[in-house]
Amino acid sequence: MRINPILMRHIGFVLMATASLTAGSWDLPQGTSVKDEGPRTYRFSVDYTTLSTKGDIVHRRREAGEYTRALPGGDVVWKNVTVAEADGATGPLAPAQKQEFMEGFRYHKNPASFSGSMAPDFFKGFPPTAVFERNLVWDEEMIEMFGQSQFEHLNLNQPYHFISSQETDIPGVGKFENRDVQLTWVGRSQRNGKECAVILYRAYFNPLHIENAGMTLQGRSHYWGEIWVSLTTKQIEYATLYEDVLGEMKLAGQNAPQIINVFRSGVFEPELQK
């Protein structure tokens, strides 16, 4: 049987193009920085679920707010931060209450880096008990750092050990140790019409100690999530956050601690123009 040479050349071109596309698809851009084309606003919503050790839901709390980056001078700002709560598993959340102390909370932030939010006076306008609101800031910075700053170290499906055995003093709150933060680039996808790298992050068996407003908590944390990062701008196009905290909590006046389990789930996404 004679093989058509024109057909063979066509097959060869297709194979070469496919090989080129495949090779390019599985390399992340190197030496690129985050590209801001003006301010961009994100919606960040995090649900806290307090459970018994048997999985019974005791209390629910939703923290949500708007975060805008790339303001003049490299500033960022928070607005419309609200809290809504409810007891039990099924009842509706109460009307959201705006956290006025966080309205217009503005500070300088370099691209893909922390802002100095662990400094003792960073949250000087916040009530001492406003730990959940501080978490919005810390979690947002974590998502941008994990998603934007480590392209050069990520190879497809190979976990990168980014942070190991790092204990952090949290002013007014306590201590947290990241035992082993792993980042894994698992492929490409699309979000908001953008080609994105999908990066998984996870950190298990992290000791924590909290002392705040007469309450102490000694326990451990597992946290993980996914981040979609634009391959052209390095902007975060979508991210998730999950955390499971288990520990012994003791309130002021209590003689013995009680076991507490808190599960968090969050979504960080840009507000798209209509």
Using the 3D structure, state the CATH architecture.
Roll
Number of helices: 2
Cα distance spanning the termini: 60 Å
The gyration radius over C-alpha positions equals 22 Å
Number of strands: 11
Number of domains: 1
SSE layout:
Layout: H1 5-25, E1 40-51, E2 57-71, E3 75-87, E4 97-98, E5 105-108, H2 131-148, E6 160-170, E7 174-191, E8 194-212, E9 215-230, E10 236-250, E11 258-270
Antiparallel strand pairs: 1-2, 1-11, 2-3, 3-4, 3-5, 6-7, 7-8, 8-9, 9-10, 10-11
Provide an overview of this structure:
The protein is mainly β and 274 residues long. The protein has helices at residues 5-25, 131-148, and strands at 40-51, 57-71, 75-87, 97-98, 105-108, 160-170, 174-191, 194-212, 215-230, 236-250, 258-270. It has a single domain (32-270), classed as Roll (Lipovitellin-phosvitin complex, beta-sheet shell regions), CATH 2.30.230. Strands 1, 2, 3, 4, 5, 6, 7, 8, 9, 10 and 11 form an eleven-stranded antiparallel β-sheet that branches. Strand 10 (236-250) and strand 11 form a beta hairpin. The radius of gyration is 22 Å and the shape is globular.
